[in-house]
Design a protein that fits this description.
Layout lengths: L10 E2 L1 H7 L4 H10 L3 E4 L2 E5 H10 L6
């Protein structure tokens, strides 16, 4: 079995999450905090990408 693809990971660090969602790290950190998707493990912070995906669906803008 090969290494998991980044998009298939449930938890990522800020740097990889920013890369995955194609945004700067500061914006991803803010997004993760607003979505309540962060988990502190010792000094490391992990972000649950499933929660991020659900949160992003609630932010959709529908234009007429």
């Amino acid at each position: 079995m090969g290494e998991l693809q980044l998009k298939d990971k449930k938890f990522v660090r800020y740097e990889k999450g920013a890369e995955l969602y194609d945004m700067c790290q500061k914006s991803f950190e803010k997004l993760a905090r607003n979505a309540n998707a962060t988990y502190k493990v010792g000094k490391m912070v992990l972000v649950n990408t499933q929660i991020i995906d659900k949160y992003l669906e609630t932010c959709r803008v529908i234009e007429n």
